[in-house]
Design a protein that fits this description.
Elements (H helix, E strand, L loop, with lengths): L1 H18 L12 H8 L3 H13 L3 E4 L3 E4 L13 H9 L1 H9 L16 H15 L13 H15 L8 E4 L2 H12 L4 E6 L3 H9 L3 E6 L7 H6 L4 E4 L13 H13 L3 E5 L15 H4 L5 E6 H4 L7 E4 L5 H8 L8 H13 L1 H20 L7
Parallel strand pairs: 4-5, 4-6, 6-7, 7-8
Antiparallel strand pairs: 1-2, 3-9, 8-9
Length: about 375
């Protein structure tokens, strides 16, 4: 545990130095050995920290040369001088098109779903029935049971570093249900931006809810800047981690560009955090919600993927500034998730069984990632 804390501390310190401009774009970082001596830690600790910074797009490795800063928070599309970003995106456009074309042959439901332990789930159901008795037959409060919302808030705090209150959490029967509530909240008189390509149900659900959508072309690390800034969009729906079917993950700089867009355009972001908990990385994925300081990001996640398709429950976290509007526009909707299901999920979160499952899958994914992508060590 102490070792983990050390490399995360190094990661956070170097990341902060990069964000604050102490290491500018293109600057070569000190070698792992030099950095280890300067910070009083092992070379392995520095190696793990550099791996995390590389995964998130803060630095880029060059074989036999070292690590160079690639994060540029100052980049922002202005119409002129943006050709380099567009060209980089076009370099991967064929790969993205190939993956999108193959999406007709499989769907999200056919992808490998890590199985949650049946015995643990069944044991938890029995325990909840024993502890709560006939209370499980009660109708759920409109936004979800207090027990589940408290459990989610605690889980997000300890595992994702998201500090939210239970009042900010809305429980629904799957992510698609929550998308419809978002349309109901913001209305149908604005344009909603959706990644292209993306999981087909996203656009279909927004359209079914009466929303006008604009498909925004994905580049190699997120929506292409020209598309993002020129579209007349007020709500942007994005999947920063491994957008389906392209597999594109937003870089650290792209995530901050999305936030700049929301500020400059007076827009809002729906961060669909599907499957990011299964990242093979040594640390949880950095969420856009955690970077947001102005209350412009709605965080959406689902238990259908992490526990199983038999659990029709998802949740979204609203910024506090949106709570009055949400209550006004959708406060009359009943929560469709049965109380029993919510109490079972809360028990799995509180007992640690949920996180043990997540950590097990992450270790398996990390092992497979290493086996499938062996890399030479970089000095």
């Amino acid at each position: 545990m102490e070792k983990t804390k050390r490399y995360l501390k190094v990661y956070e310190q170097v990341r902060e130095d990069i964000i604050k401009g102490r290491y500018s774009v293109g600057t070569k970082l000190p070698s792992k050995r030099v950095m280890a001596e300067a910070m009083g830690v092992s070379v392995i600790t520095i190696e793990h920290a550099y791996e995390l910074l590389t995964e998130e797009g803060y630095i880029s490795p060059k074989e036999k040369s070292g690590y160079f800063v690639s994060f540029d928070d100052k980049e922002i599309y202005t119409g002129a001088g943006s050709k380099n970003k567009t060209t980089v995106a076009e370099d991967n456009s064929n790969l993205i098109k190939e993956k999108a074309a193959s999406s007709d042959q499989f769907s999200m439901s056919t992808l490998r779903v890590p199985k949650f332990s049946y015995s643990i789930y069944a044991k938890t159901v029995r325990r909840v029935l024993s502890e709560y008795g006939s209370f499980v037959m009660n109708k759920s409060p409109k936004n979800g049971t207090e027990e589940l919302r408290r459990a989610i808030a605690a889980y997000l705090s300890r595992s994702r570093r998201l500090l939210v209150s239970p009042d900010q959490i809305i429980v629904g029967a799957g992510a698609e249900y929550l998308y419809l509530l978002i349309v109901q909240t913001f209305g149908r008189d604005i344009v909603y931006g959706v990644e292209s390509p993306s999981y087909q149900k996203i656009a279909k659900v927004y359209t079914a809810g009466g929303a006008d959508i604009h498909m925004l072309k994905l580049g190699n690390d997120g929506i292409e800047s020209e598309e993002l800034w020129n579209a007349d969009v007020k709500v942007l729906h994005i999947t920063p981690y491994r957008s389906f079917p392209s597999g594109v993950t937003a870089s650290a700089a792209k995530k901050r560009e999305y936030l700049k867009w929301s500020r400059n355009k007076d827009g809002f972001i729906v961060e669909d955090d599907f499957e990011s908990e299964f990242t093979p990385s040594r640390k949880p994925e950095e969420t856009i919600f955690s970077l947001d300081e102005e209350g412009r990001v709605i965080y959406v996640n689902t238990f259908t993927r992490t526990i199983g398709s038999y659990v029709r429950a998802a949740y979204m976290v609203l910024p506090k500034s949106l709570l009055p509007l949400f209550a006004e526009k959708t406060g009359f909707y009943e929560c469709p998730v049965p109380t029993l299901d919510q109490l079972v999920i809360a028990a799995l979160l509180n007992s640690g069984d949920f996180e043990r499952h997540i950590n097990k899958v992450r270790r398996q994914n990390r092992k497979k990632d290493i086996e499938n992508n062996p890399q030479d060590d970089i000095i």
